Every structure is written in C-alpha cells, then in structure tokens.
Amino acid sequence: MLKSLFFVLLVVAVAQSQLWSNCGTSADHFQITDVTVNPPVPVKGQDITVYASGVLNEQVTGGNVHAVIKYGFLTIVNKNEPFCSSDNPVPCPVPAGNYNHTVSATIPANAPSGKYTANIVAVDQNNQEIACVNVNVNL
C-alpha cells in the first residue's frame, strides 16, 4: 500500500505542476520538458496515466531514491530505495539524452482523504542529484 501510494504521489506530482515544486538546483541531471496526464485531476479508485519527457545529461546505472511522505503532520513513509531494482518502473541503465516514459497507476480507493506532502530526492551512482521534487496533493 505505501509503495503504491509513494509511486502515485510521485506520478501525480510530476503530472500536476501546480502540485509540485523543484527543490533541486541547475546542476540536477534530469530536466523535465513535457508532461501529459489523463485524467487531469486524480480520482481515488481510478487509473491515472502520465506521459513525461525530458533530458538526462548522464547515463544512470545506479543510485538511490529517498522519500519522506506525510499525511497531514504524520510521517507515513521515510525510506531509501535503490534507483535500479526489479520493481523499479524505470529500467536501468537509463542512457543519457532525451528520455520519455508512460506510466499508469491506480490511485488506491481506500487512501484517506486529506493533504499529502512529500519530498523525493533521487541521486545517481556517484551520489549526485538526479532530481528533487516537493509534492502537495489533496485527495
């Protein structure tokens, strides 16, 4: 459940630019150039599909993703996950250059209504930041 919620929050955050902010720097290795989401407003219990594209300025062969997700003021996730793993929706290695990906996920019907916030930071195999995103989602 928590892993699904984490992934859905990340997908919704990227897709809905008014719900996310870039907490990285100009030195981040990935820059988003286009995002399309359907439906445009997430609905509990329904699928959401996101198409995203951008430019990655280096090949990524490993690294880590650190996520802190809160429901209101309660921390529900505070964990590190390997960037490259068998359950990662982005297969590794990820080559440098233009990159696009389409992802579909179901927003859990039993996700409590309310405000979710998250800070998600991905670093590469050299511990350099790939991207950093802050998220604010109301379900």
From TrEMBL:
InterPro entries named in the record: Ig_E-set, ML_dom, NPC2-like
Database matches in Pfam families: E1_DerP2_DerF2
Top-rank lineage group of the source organism: Eukaryota
GO molecular function, one term: sterol binding
Gene3D superfamilies on file: 2.60.40.770
Alphabetized UniProt keyword annotations: Lipid transport, Signal, Transport
A GO biological-process term: sterol transport
Signal peptide: 1-17
Domain MD-2-related lipid-recognition per the UniProt entry, residue ranges: 20-137
Subunit annotation: Monomer.
Described function: Catalyzes the intermembrane transfer of phosphatidylglycerol and phosphatidylinositol.
Entry's family note: Belongs to the NPC2 family.
Protein name stated in the entry: MD-2-related lipid-recognition domain-containing protein
Source organism: Polysphondylium violaceum
